[in-house]
Structure formats: structure tokens, C-alpha cells
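Review form for a predicted model. The reviewer records the input and the model, then writes brief findings.
Reviewer: anonymous (R2)
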Amino acid sequence: MASRQKATVHPPGTDPRRWKALFVLSALQFMILLDMTIVNVALPAIEDGMAFDQTGLTWVVNGYALAAGSLLILGGRLADYYGRRRLLIIGVVVFAVSSALCGLATHPAMMIVGRFGQGAAEALAAPASLGLIALLFTDAKERSKALGIWGGLVALGGTLGYVFSGLLTNFTSWRWIFLINLPVALIALVAIPALLDESRATEKRGKLDVWGAVTSTTGLIAIVYGLLQAAENPWGSGAVVLPVVAGIALILTMLVIERRVADPLLPRGFFHNRTRSVVNFTSLFFMAAFIGYTFMLTLFEQDVLGYSPLQSGLGYLPLGIGIGIGIGASSVLVPKIGVKPVVVAGFIGAGVGLGLTSFVSTESSYLLGILPGMLVFAVFAGATMPAATNAALHGVTKQDSGLASGVQSTAQQIGGALGLAVLVTFATRRFLSDVTAGEPVEVAMTNGFTLGFTIGAVLMLVGGVLLAIFLERVDGALRDPMVEGVEAEVANMTGDEAPRP
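Model under review:
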């Protein structure tokens, strides 16, 4: 029995299936994140085909963001408690069912429910997936490379959604932007059990902190909902203020609960790690600028420059290529010079790219007006992604890898909602002000968009300064508690001494 057990247990970072598992996890997350943005270019076709009113149409986008942003922390903790592979499989099933519901929808309510389901699928699958990757790759250099690949495909999913949406909507039907997910989900359901062992927190735990989960989830729902309402209502209106205040109150209630329960949803001291805290905080700035940029650039190209959905979608190809280049460079540099120089340079360089984009005008061409800023932004934003993910997992134990992944993903989702709420709101108000002052509509729209790009650039630069001041040095060769926890577990299972570098 002992020899059989030794034959099936691999020392940390030596599982021969880990690279195949990484491919499956990355491809799955690529498809899930693809669906976050793939609807944007297809919205007019969905509106016509489903008889949506304008208010209902916004929930095709917002429903996903609301479900994902509010459930990610809970999804991460459930993965730690009940098994990361199990939660990943559940997430895939939810994703497939929700995609089918969207693709076959005959009523607006079916579409909105399906989009909420897709967001919930991300909340279940993303923390479990990233937590599994962190445990599969315990060698610092391999982990940096693996996180770079995972982050690269995820980022490409977020950006190439515009490309695929334009192609599918132009040549087939908008329904295929959802139905194409079904074969991917089927392949994942076959591959996951074959390539991944179950993984969960091994410490003896009490019951799940139900009240902490309820207050944190409902609090995040209220905050994200309020931020999304700011895109259509004044900041001081009840539609914005009431849900945000209620959400903050619920989060504060959750913090009180966490101090009193024996096994809190958020372990005490989780945010005492300065590196994790500052990276998660600046992720708000990064995603606000990133999502705001892609959303406003799409509108600028179609409403001001007159691009078709296909032209606009194909125009994002250099963004995906640039992100891939940046991720590749980051994966090489982080093990050599550490996380801090790479992530700081990434934020500042991305801010410069947005600054270049803010000079567009009604007469701008794609090659000279849009492409230079896009390439600079893409390369530096891509370099930021794996470095920031590495920092967000710094010092995390095996017990809390899913939670740490969920916290970072939550910050990213809330940041995206902030981008739509803040940047787009400022852009819209500048547009209305200029139109009232007598500016031509195209000029007024461009002025609004350039203001939004400028604010995004400032957010990136401020994030870079905060990281330069507060981020600790994270050495790519550091042995962190997660590595030691996995090695100790393997040593206990095999009876061997944990390997040392």
C-alpha cells in the first residue's frame, strides 16, 4: 500500500501532468473571461433580436459584473473548504448551462439570468483555477512562467472578446458568441478529472462562516450595483448613494463578525501582508483604467470614426498581441529582478500609453492616432499582469490559496465596475456640457472620451507611485509558506523528508 501511494504522489512541482493541466485551466478561463467582453460589440444586434429596452440592455453587461464581483471571495473560500477541483467542475457546469441559456434565449429575462449565471461561474471557477496553478507550480521560476501563461490567456480572453464578437456577429449570429462555449465546457469536464487531483485546505476546520459569507456577498452586491448605477444617475442620487452606503455597512458588519467567529471567512491578519494589500488595492486602479479604455475606445471608433463592429473588433488584435509580448517579458524578468520593478514599470508605462491615446481627435487615423497608444498600453499592461498575480499570492499558505485568488479577482471586478461608473460618467458629462455649449456632437463625444482616457492614465500613474512606495521586494526565488505547506503535505503522505532547494 505504501509503495502504491508513493507511486501516485509527486513532490511539489514535479507532477508530470502540470503543464497539460495548466493548458486546460488557462483555456477554460480564457473562454469564461471572453464572455465578459464578447457581448459589447454585439449589443446592438442583441437589442434588435431580443426587443430589449435600453435599461434592460445594460444588464446584459452589468449582470455578469455584479454576479462575479460579489461572489468571488465566497467562491475562493468554498474552493479551499470543499475542494478546488470540485468547485472548478461545478463552475464549468454552471458556465455551460448559463451559456446555453443565453444562446437559446427567447426573452430578455432569459438572457439576463444567463449572464448572471456566467458571472457566478467565474466566481466559482477562477479562484479554484488560480489556486490549483499556484499549488501545481511551487518552483519560483516555473510558477512565474505558469502565472504568465494563465494571465496571458485570461487577458487575451478579455481583449479578444471584441474581435470574436465582431466576427461572429458579422458572419453568423450573435447567439454563437454564447453557444461556442458548450464544446469547450465539455472538453474541460472530461480533462479536469484526468489531469487534476483534488486539493483542499488540510487543516481541521470548523463550519463555514455563513454569516460572514452572507454579509460580505450582499455587501459587495450592493457596492457593485451602486457603482454601476453611477453610469446613468448622478453620484449624489439615491440610486447610487443608498446601495453603496448599505454595502459599506454590510462589509463593516462582516468585519465585526470575523473578529468573533472561530473560523472566519477572511483569516485574521490576511491583509496584514503589505504586498498583498497594496497589489489588491492598486488592482482597482488598473482594471478601472483597462475596462474604461476598451469600453470608451469601442464607442469612439464606432460613434465618432464610423467603424463597423467588424472593423472595431479587428482593431483590438494589436492590443492582444502587445499584452502577450508584455506577459512574456514579465515572465522572464520577474524571476531575475523581482516583482516590484516589473509591476511599477508596468503601471507607469500603461499610464503613458493611455496618455498617448488621450490625444485622439475626430480626424485621427487608426495607424497614427489609436495604434501607438494601444501598443504602449498593451505591452506594459501585459507586463503588469503576471507580476501582480505573483504578488497577490505572495506568502499565501496552501490553506488560503483559493481565498487569495478570490480576493484579487474581486478587486479586479470592482475595479472594472469603477471604470464604467467613474470614467464613463465623466466622459458622458463632458459630452453633455460641450453639446450644451454648442460644440458639434462628434467633437463633444471625442472631448468626453479623451477626458476619460486622461483620468485612466492618472489612475495608472498613481497606482505605480503607490506600488513604488509601499510594495515590498518580492524575490522570484523566495520560498513562501505555500511552497512549504505543499512540501510538508507530500512528505507526510510519502513518509519522505520534504525536498530542499
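Findings: The first helix runs from residue 2 to 8.
Further findings: Residues 215 and 253 are 7 Å apart (CA to CA).
Recommendation: see findings above.
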